[in-house]
Design goal:
This protein has about 230 residues and is an alpha/beta fold. The protein has six helices and eleven strands. The termini are far apart.
């Protein structure tokens, strides 16, 4: 399998990982705040030095493609594009909400039929969310939601829905339904990106390095949740 440099900067966590043959072989994370511009270059340099010192050629760069923080995604995309230009390698974009779902699928036992609802915090009671089944097939596209007690009832009334991410934590009180599962401390991290990146390599899904732009939070217009269901 390919060796991939994975970059995740969509939230306040800055992380970089190197994966090879389905395993994470290098990982760095910083949770001290929005210090991406300061920390990312050092992490990438350490990651590339690690790969070079082990004579492992980096075949592609995977970057979190949003939604997420405008500044964080911009810093991550710029670094990823620079690496691709400099080394003449492929660029892969991995949706942030899919990255956020990976640790839930890997580390938590879920009933059959449980839907996944990863949430990125926006402001007040706004979140950016999608709904997936356990194979990460989209049940509902990414949308901007204003969360209240009626949100996601179309899905909750039919079965279990697992909510997670920094958007879910602030909305826990509003998501008061017997079928709602709230998971805490789930973050989109570079070390979770590689299964999704490898899938895109297998399907030959790459980005145009010159024209790639992340899916910024500002690209959405929030609407009342009841109008989205």
């Amino acid at each position: 399998m390919s060796c991939i440099l994975n970059i995740e900067t969509s939230t306040n966590v800055c992380s970089v990982a190197v994966s090879q043959e389905g395993c994470c072989i290098f990982n760095r994370e910083d949770r001290s705040g929005y210090n991406h511009a300061e920390r990312l270059g050092t992490f990438v340099q350490e990651a590339v030095s690690f790969a070079d010192s082990h004579a492992i050629p980096v075949d592609a760069v995977a970057v979190s493609g949003g939604p997420g923080s405008y500044t964080g995604l911009r810093v991550g995309a710029s670094m990823a594009k620079g690496m691709c230009y400099g080394r003449d390698i492929k660029l892969i974009s991995v949706p942030t909400l899919e990255v956020l779902s990976v640790p839930v699928l890997l580390e938590h036992e879920l009933e059959d039929g449980t839907l996944l609802c990863p949430m990125i915090d926006a402001r007040r009671m706004e979140v950016y969310a999608a709904i997936y089944d356990r194979s990460l097939k989209k049940v509902r596209q990414i949308q901007a939601d204003i969360v209240d007690e009626t949100s996601y009832r179309e899905y909750l009334d039919k079965g279990k829905v697992c909510f997670f991410g920094n958007g879910a934590s602030k909305c826990a009180a509003a998501l008061n339904h017997p079928n709602a599962i709230i998971l805490k401390d789930i973050e989109p991290l570079a070390k979770y990106m590689f299964p999704l990146a490898e899938k895109r390599i297998a399907e030959e899904i790459y980005e145009d390095v010159a024209y790639f732009v992340p899916f910024y939070l500002k690209d959405f217009v929030a609407k009342p949740a009841k109008k989205l269901l």
